[in-house]
Every structure is written in C-alpha cells, then in structure tokens.
Amino acid sequence: xxxxxxxxxxxxxxxxxxxxxxxxxxxxxxxxxxxxxxxxxxxxxxxxxxxxxxxxxxxxxxxxxxxxxxxxxxxxxxxxxxxxxxxxxxxxxxxxxxxxxxxxxxxxxxxxxxxxxxxxxxxxxxxxxxxxxxxxxxxxxxxxxxxxxxxxxxxxxxxxxxxxxxxxxxxxxxxxxxxxxxxxxxxxxxxxxxxxxxxxxxxxxxxxxxxxxxxxxxxxxxxxxxxxxxxxxxxxxxxxxxxxxxxxxxxxxxxxxxxxxxxxxxxxxxxxxxxxxxxxxxxxxxxxxxxxxxxxxxxxxxxxxxxxxxxxxxxxxxxxxxxxxxxxxxxxxxxxxxxxxxxxxxxxxxxxxxxxxxxxxxxxxxxxxxxxxxxxxxxxxxxxxxxxxxxxxxxxxxxxxxxxxxxxxxxxxxxxxxxxxxxxxxxxxxxxxxxxxxxxxxx
Length: 443
Ligand code: ATP
Known about the structure:
Elements: H1 3-19, E1 22-24, E2 36-38, H2 40-59, E3 64-66, H3 75-80, H4 83-86, E4 88-93, E5 100-102, E6 130-133, E7 136-139, E8 149-152, H5 157-161, H6 164-171, E9 177-186, E10 201-211, H7 216-233, E11 241-245, E12 257-265, E13 268-279, H8 281-290, E14 296-298, E15 303-305, E16 308-315, H9 316-327, E17 328-333, E18 336-341, E19 352-356, H10 363-374, E20 380-382, H11 388-398, E21 402-406, H12 408-413, E22 415-420, E23 426-430, H13 431-441
Parallel strand pairs: 3-9, 19-20, 19-21
Antiparallel strand pairs: 1-2, 4-5, 4-6, 7-8, 9-10, 10-16, 11-12, 12-13, 13-16, 14-15, 17-18, 21-22, 22-23
C-alpha cells in the first residue's frame, strides 16, 4: 500500500474525530474491535445518505414499497436461506502470534509482529483453513440452550423475502415491483478493518425487485444503470467508480449473475454495492421450509409462479466512508492549508452557517434572526466566536456548502454575503431572498 494512501486515511480518521463525524465505540475503555459511533456531524450525514437512498428508491417511484423487519427472526429463516450451513469464511490462525486471518485475504492483511509484511510474505506459521460461521448467535428467553438460539441478522434481505405476500396484498402492487429496507446487519467478520469499511455491526440499504423469470436479464441491466446513476447523483466522482463482474466460480450459492459497484478507496478498489440476480432461490427455499405457498398469481399472464429477484444491496456505512473519502480535499489558500469536505450540498450535514462578521454593532442580533428563520428549512449552524476566516475554515472541514455573513452593509441595505464553500466566492444577497436562493442550489 502506498504511503500516501495510508496518510490520507490517517488524516481522514483524525478529521472525523476532530469534527465529530465518527469515533471508536466505548473509546474510554480502549474501544471495541471495529465498532464505531457516529457523532453530531456523522449522524446528520448518515441520515442524509439514508434519506437520499430512500427517496430515490421509494418516494420517487411507484413500484417500490418500504418495509422495516425485525432484526431477530425465526431461526428457520437462516436454515432456509443457507446461512446456518454456508455463511462462512475460511479462517487461519498464526501458531506464533495467535492472530486470526481470513484465508482468502492473506495478501491484504499485515502480520501483527511485522506490519510491513503480509503473513505470506513473512512466512508465518499458519494453520490449515477452517470454516467459520459469520452469524452472531444469542439466546431468546431465560434458558440458554440449543432450542433458544436466535441470530442477529447478517443481511436485511431475508426480512423482505418472508414478507413478500404481506407487502404484496395491502400495497396492491403487481410484478414487476420491489421492496426496500434500511436496517442493521451483523457479521462476525474475521478481519474487520479500514475504519468503517468492514465492521461487525453495520447498516444495509437493500432493495429486492420481484420479476417474471423470463425478464431477469432485462431488469438486471436496468438496475445496474440505476444504481450507477445513483452514485453520480450522490456526488461521487465517476472516474472513481467501476463495475466488477463476479466470474462463474465467484458467484454466491444463490446467484445466477452478480456484479459489484466498486470505488477506488485509498486502500484499493473495493465493493460498495452488490447487484445480484438471486433467481427464485430464496422464495423457493422459504416455500419448502415453511410449507407456505410463496408463489405469485399473475393475472395478466394467467400464470402462477415463483418470481425471480434482482437485488441491489448497498452498505450505508460503506457509502458514508466513500462520501468522506471522495469529498476530502486539501488546498492551499493564501499560503495556508485549507481542508475542505466537498460533499454534495444535498447530503452535507450542515447546509448553512450563519456568522456575524463581528460581535458588535447589532450584527449578532440580525444574524440570530436569520439563523432562526433559516433553521426552519435547513440544518443550520450559528457561530460568532473567533476571526471570521477561522470560522469559515471550521465550516469547510464540516463540509457546509453555504456561509451567510452579516456585516456593516447589512443594516444599510438588508443584504448579506453568501459564501460558496468550494469556490469561496461570495455573492451579495437580499435577506428576503436567501431561503429561496439556497433552496434552488440544493436541488
Ligand atoms: P465482502 O465480500 O466485502 O465481505 P459481501 O459480498 O459479503 O462483502 P454483501 O453480502 O453483498 O457483501 O453485502 C452487501 C453490502 O453490504 C456490501 O456491498 C457492503 O456495502 C455492505 N457490507 C457487507 N459486509 C459489511 C461489513 N462487514 N461492514 C460494512 N459493510 C458491509
């Protein structure tokens, strides 16, 4: 890994801590392996990403419904889905330092005793690979025995499949249609890492699209295009994205076709989202295991069949990391370093900072009034402490796209300056026109 890439991740992690985006969970106790908490800015950014996904996938469409299924599901769900038997990764242990690695990622990890080398390069004394199930197990009720085992869901998708008919009937949808869900998933990853890229607790944003089996290729291509466009609309640079097809020997047990949308992170090209043709694998498995008829009656085709499913499965935390990495810029302005998070204004945690130029001459009062008015529409931040240049820099690091400054002229003609984060250009705008101008720029 190039040194500069490591540096970039280090600088980003430190900015996330400093500005309150993300920090290690239970930090005062030394943290907990790969668990992270989202701070005031992180939680806004995450919420905006989820809202953007939800709006794109459900509100702007007539053919996708939402659902929010429970995290704990009947254990038979995970037997039917194949997770109890097969949701495993191959694991190896080092006999010398006792570290544990994923056998298929040995070239990507570092030997704890010699961080400059991978366990292979270092000739570590590794055990043969053993299969390790990634599902977290817990017990339901007061008795801890095999009959009370339940799992923390490792994916949100199964909550959609088992509810196929529950959603179909009240929504009166007809195939083709989809069901979308955002929710937590848990995987006991052997080697989590790269900040929030791979964690043991994470959120997924998944959509399952139910179709007639004869139309699977058409819908698979359609969803590839839609999901690509989604990342562009999210403001991600197109040259940092690529499709990576799964070859026949890489396909998951349920998939007929699969492609990942990958992003070029500082630590290499990595999966951001998977698009899968899952065929009728899941509905068939649940029909066999539950004994319930999962088929769909198509009144136009006069045919009863098990629909095929095209799945789009994105990680919310991983999208957030992508957005952070993609937005991070360092620039030199008048001989000084400026760090700016160039988030798309749509998802920026704070939209507008309102600043009086100085803390006197009635400026704070006017600025407060503007702030109180704008915050009805946007997430705003009021700041009167320190030199205005320093305040702008703080907002640049927070990724705030607009800065409104009240100055000496404001009292004379009821105008303020509107500063644009990326260009740093400032327009003079009438206070009465501020809200609509910002609204237009957020479209
Ligand atoms: P990988 O090969 O990286 O383990 P996967 O192919 O198992 O991932 P999927 O099961 O397709 O991943 O999950 C869909 C999406 O959920 C991924 O594209 C990713 O964005 C997210 N995701 C999966 N595992 C994790 C994790 N441990 N931490 C954060 N996000 C995850």
